[in-house]
Specification:
196 residues; alpha/beta; Maf protein; seven-stranded mixed beta sheet; 8 helices
């Protein structure tokens, strides 16, 4: 039996977390239109957590239909600032605006994962981390952004906790893997039970 799972994400960091934890995987990005789903859910007053869970499930289910009998892992991460959803930036101006909103405040990073088989969700899990950002001047935030490549900026929200981003925070409570987009401990527990 082929024990590879399919990762329905183009995130290099998520792939690295799976590889580091010796979980054999194949990458097959779902390429769903996240904005349409987010808009629809926001119009229904869905919480950031519900949006994150829904997106992870849609990604996993879409790829799962292509690969019957395989386990497909979908994931999504969002920022929850005082109950409001903050999405990934589409350009550097938006990235700066996001950092200004988070500046000197507490927010939550929510990461949801979903495992699907035969086009249906069979397991899901959501984890939260609490982050308190230090107080920076606008110039300091611009300087921080200037150190981050476009690829990193658009892939991982506005901070990279594994490198430069760590210095933005006065306090971080939660699993670093969750902040990077994949709460790996629970995924490993689930896969182990199922012989992976």
């Amino acid at each position: 039996m082929d024990k590879k799972i399919i990762l329905a994400s183009k995130s290099k960091v998520r792939k690295e977390i799976l590889d580091r934890n010796n979980i054999a995987n194949i990458v097959e990005p779902s390429n769903i239109n996240e904005d349409i789903i987010k808009s629809s859910l926001l119009s229904e007053k869905a919480s950031p957590e519900i949006i994150s869970k829904n997106l992870a499930e849609v990604k996993a289910n879409k790829i799962s239909m292509k690969y019957p009998d395989k386990l497909v892992l979908g994931a999504d991460s969002v920022i929850d600032l005082e109950g409001k959803l903050i999405s990934k930036p589409e350009n550097r101006e938006v990235a700066l605006e996001i950092l200004k909103k988070l500046n000197d405040k507490t927010h939550h990073l929510i990461s949801s994962v979903c495992i699907s088989k035969n086009g249906m969700m069979i397991w899901n899990y959501t984890d939260k981390a609490k982050l308190i950002m230090k107080n920076f001047t606008e110039e300091e935030l611009k300087k921080y952004l200037s150190k981050i490549s476009d690829e990193a900026l658009y892939a991982y929200n506005v901070y990279q906790i594994e490198s430069e981003g760590r210095y933005l925070f006065a306090n971080i409570e939660g699993d670093e893997n969750t902040i990077m987009g994949l709460p790996i401990k629970k995924i490993k527990e689930y896969l182990k039970i199922h012989g992976y």
